[in-house]
Amino acid sequence: MHITVLTDNYTYIDRYYLGEPAVSYYIQADGKNILFDAGYSDVFLKNGHAMGVDFSSLDYLAISHGHNDHTGGLGELLPEFQGTSSKPIFVAHPDVFEQRYADGLNISPSVTAKELEQCFSVRLTRQPLKLTENLYFLGEIPRQNDFESQKAVGICRSLSGDICDFVADDSALVYKGGNGIYLITGCSHAGICNIIEYAKKVTGESRILGVLGGFHLFELDNQTEKTIQYLKQQEIPALYPCHCTSLRVKAEMMKEMSIEEVGVGLTLEWL
């Protein structure tokens, strides 16, 4: 599996790409091309084009959850498929198109399911879905441990009224390698430890070889402390926390384990 970071909060010095507080990854696995998340704007497209990515060759577009720092660029992507016979498969949780608000801002996706259907075959699922021979979309993540926060992130708005949004649609990808599994997350609202445990169950593999993505950890609190303890026990050789993982959390993690820097243009070859 080959992964290229198209969008992240950070960029590398002397590598002239654009950054924004968002996520997008281009993944090549088992002969298939997958875009995982579409950032906040057209930044992922600009970076991808500069890196030589042909978006019209996508087989799948998978979305981790319906917040606008992961779906904001969807409208910018649609013109890439005009005049082509290609119709990739869009994969996400059924709640991905909910109307969401936080801190008075609309943080919903930039397009509707109907608009996406012009260019994509839309597949919404709560269950795990195999995208390639070895790559899985995990669907809805069971939230089973007692330390990963289940705080609402704003509200979901519907005809029946506003409800607290616990981001039930938060998902991730897992790749089954030769000697274990690799995970790619968006924001890990479901909890990175919950995600890892569910990935083990879905794949039948217990060895975690690598994790790339946001962990949604900002403060040095009980959740962070227990998450670090859990990750240390897993003895993960390639750990790449990014996006919604604060500097202070990364610094605390480095006291207990080795972590790697992430920026736009990072490429990983995971086997």
Structural summary, described in words:
The chain has 271 residues and is α/β, with parallel strands linked by helices. Helix content is 20%, strand content 27%. The protein is built from seven helices and 17 strands. The strands form three sheets. It has a seven-stranded mixed sheet. The chain has a six-stranded mixed sheet with strand order 9-10-13-14-15-16, covered by helices on one side. Strands 7-6-11-12 form a four-stranded antiparallel sheet, with no helix packed on it. A hairpin with a 2-residue loop joins strand 2 and strand 3 (32-36). The longest helix is centred in the last third of the chain and has 13 residues, at 222-234. It is globular and about 50 Å long. It starts with a strand and ends with a strand. The model has no long low-confidence stretch (mean pLDDT 96).
